[in-house]
Each structure stands twice: as C-alpha cells, then as structure tokens.
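Protocol step 4 of 6: record predicted structures for both targets in the notebook before any analysis. Target 1:
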Amino acid sequence: MNLPILLIEFKYGLSAEEAMQQIKEKEYFSRYRNGDYPNDVLLIGINYDPKTKDHQCQIEKLD
C-alpha cells in the first residue's frame, strides 16, 4: 500500500496560497525528491480566518 506523503503548512488569518508559497520557498519537500521515496508527495496549505471562522485549503501534487 503506497500512501502519499503529506506536507502541511497551517496559517492563521493569512491565506492558503501563502501557506503553499512557504512550503515551496523553504523547499520542505526536498528530502523526498531524491528517489528514495516512491510515494506521491502532496503539498497542503491551510488557512483559518479568525474573523469569519472559515478555512481555506489548497492541495498540489509534487511533480
């Protein structure tokens, strides 16, 4: 069973896009690119807005 690796960044009062941008800028996924991990890697950016009490989520599969 090949379950994907989940890389998650949470933000509070910002945006899911900013969370995703941080994952990419800091290259949290770099250790999984060397071929030792055959599973898919999913990048997940989540934001919670304390004013509206809503959340946003953005998911991308690492190529």
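Target 2:
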Amino acid sequence: MREYSEQELVRREKLEKIKDLGIDPFGQKFSRTGFADDIKNKYKDIAHDEFENINDEYTVAGRIMFIRKMGKASFFTIKDKTGLIQIYISVNDVAEDAYSLFKSADIGDIVGVRGKVMKTKTGEVTLKCLEYTHLVKALRPLPEKFHGLTDIEERYRRRYVDLIMNEEARNVAFMRPKIIRCIQKFMDEQGFVEVETPILSTLLTGASAKPFITHHNTQDLDMYLRIALELPLKRLLVGGMEAVYEIGRVFRNEGMDPKHNPEFTLMEAYLAYSDLEGMMDLTEKMYQTIARDVIGKMKYNWYGNEINLEGPWKRISMVDAIKEKTGIDFKKDITAKQALDLAAKHNIIVEDHEHSVGHIINLFFEKYVEETLIQPTFLYGHPIEISPLTKKNPDDPRFVDRFELFIGGKEFANAYTELNDPIDQLNRFEEQIKQRELGNDEANDIDMDFIEALEYGMPPAGGIGYGIDRLCMLFLEQESIRDVLLFPTMKEKK
C-alpha cells in the first residue's frame, strides 16, 4: 500500500467528516439547467446595474478550480465541460451548515450550485449561490502549476489530469470529434455510405506494414489485427454499394514517434466509376470544408510553415518532381543496373528487395523531394513495384494511377485508380510473395477470396485512404500525434 502525502491524509479526514454529516462523499445524480460558457455569453454585454431587475437562476455543476475563502462570504470558480464560471457564496444566502461544508472544500472537489446570475463590479458574470451541494470529494490534489503537468510524458499517461489543467488539451479533445463529424457529413452529402468491416483477419493484406498477431482460441487460429480497410471495402463495390467509406482503427506493429502511433484512425473511401482525378477533387473539397465549417480559417501554422489550404492545389508526377530537384529524368528507359549506379552516385542505400528501377525512383523521391512539399500537393505516378494494388497507367505501364497528398512535407492521403483486373491482381500478389522471400516482411499475402470477388466484376473505381490523426494534427496545429489522441500508446513505466 502506498504512503499518502500530508494533503491526501487531510482530504481523507475530510471525507470521513462528510460521511459523518450523512452526505455521500461521491455523490448522486444532479440535474443542471445551465453551463458555464452559455451563461457567461448570454449575460456578458449586460451592464452591472441592470442585474437589479434580473432574477434568472441556473443550476450548474463542476470541479472547483479556485477558492478565495473569507469570513462570511467567499468566491470560488468551478469548471464544467464548457469552461469556468465564478460563484459568490455567503452565509446570508445559504444555510450556515451549507456554508460550513463549502469552507471545508478543496480545489479539485466537484460541487453543484443553484444560483442567481449577477455581475461583479469588475464586470465578471457570476452566480450568487442560493443552494450548495457537495458531489465528489477529490482525494488527490491537482498539480500546483495552473498550466498543468510539466512532464510531457506524464501529460499523456494521466490525460485526465491534463484535461483538467490544460485548456489547449481540452480544446483539442472537443475539436477532434467535430472534425470527424464534419467528415462524415461531407461524405454522406457526396453520396457515400458509411460501413463497418472486420478488425480481425487471417491474411495480411491491404497495405505494406508489420501486423499485430492475436489468437482465436475456439478455432485455434492465429489472426492479424487489420493494417488497412481496403479489400473488404472493394468487395462491397463488387456487391453494388458503389460509394462506401469507413472510419476505423487500424494497427501496425511499428515504431512510435511524433508522427506515428501503433494504433491509429484511418478513413478509406471507394467510389465506383471514378478515378484518380475524382479522388483529388474529393480530397481538396473535403479539406476546405473542414477548414471553413469547423475551424473557420484556411491558413495554418504547422512545423514552422504557414500552410494555405485555398485551391487549386498543386498536382505533379513523382518523376517530374525528382527531375526538378536532381535533373535526373526517370521517364526515360533505364535499366536496373543504371538505376543502381545512380543511387550509388547519390549515396542512396538500396536494400536487397529494392533493386528494381521503381524502388530506386521511390528512394530518390524520399531523399530529395518529400520534405520539400510544404503546400498541399498531389504527387502522382508511382512506380508499379511499390503499388501492388493499383491500376497501371494506360500510357506508361511502368507507373500506376496513384497519388499521395503531401502537406508540410508529410503524407496525408494515399489514393488509387483501383485495380479491378483479377488476372493482373493475382500476378501482383504473387510478386509480393517473391518480395517476402527476398526479405520484405511487409509484403502482402495472396487473398484468393478477393481474387474471386474481382472475377465477378468490380466497376472501375477511385479509392483513397486518409490518416485522420495527422489530418487533426494539421487542423489543430499540433506537432505530435500524441496531442490529438486521448490515450496514445506509451512505453511501460518502470
């Protein structure tokens, strides 16, 4: 059993005294008629003297964040989900035993107040307490510093304390759901249907990533937590749903850094009879809708850059972007040996499974281009070797109809003109197995059921995946994914 601090011991003594008064120290249902910010906004423009003719009463509840105890009258501030409101309490307005109960309160306690709205001489909207209700005794003191926890790791581990003390963290927590609701409303209005697909799978498919592995006891079967949403959603296109999307958790057994968390929220959307251009138009419109309807601005400060979401956004091919930076034209016919020589000349390390021209093109992009794409840019025309699920470009089959959206030098979305040729798809799957044999442990399995689905006929389609956490990072101007996740994955505390 841990040792209690002096403050904690005092709070536990007060807990027993509350019990002795016949009061439940951890409260019961409490009905509210108002919230802090709503009350303050309603009365903020009314002059102090006009409150003599206003007898409006509200019942509020929240956590005590500040107390100024005096003799027979005191001020305290409570915080609810909308913000702070000041309370004036006097022994003349509440029973003496109620005032005595208030005097024993600590910062962090949760209380209820019925009060008459008033305004102090300094102009602060305040409730004059007419009825005071103890609800919950806080047995631990809040951090002394008003801005909250100073240890950033502890902020993430004890998010509940961070939300109490840190206004920016509270704002992010409330804004993220609004962004997701906006996305859902936008997609619904575009004619998409939101669906749910399985999290557990017996195959590793849909993306290049290391999976988390679990075990199904009844079937004595190892299973994967999904790394993507793609193949089940494309099966729905085969079934005739035509426009579908899903927002859900995916899991990748990889490292953690300010941009990555092992579990994250992904949205994938698929639209029959569309293509790459359709996905670009959809994406630009969605981002601008969020910016306008939720945040209310088009320019964002992120990683030291001013990002402007006003259109039209730049569209450029991968090989043209590389040529701009290096002068090398990978559109020309080039052998694998020539590509390897170019890589060696530019000090680019090539792994055993990356000896194709396409893989080397991608390595050049990562070294010379990726971090330079600051303003929203659709980068298209990826080599076929790094895009196993994507339709070949009809004009140059070395490349596929795929784009990635880059903002601030970071990837935000990945889109395809979807591959719907079952023969080509099977060949690509088989190539992935060869890649695995060469040491690529992120290569896909062969999903024969998906091949069968394609053999029934999937309409031409555009598809896209969005990292919702990174999208929220941009709109909320946060530089760590942990700041937009309420409960990020943390290393075990020893």
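Step 5 preliminary note on target 2. The mean pLDDT is 93. The two ends are 17 Å apart (CA to CA).
Proceed to step 6 after PI sign-off.
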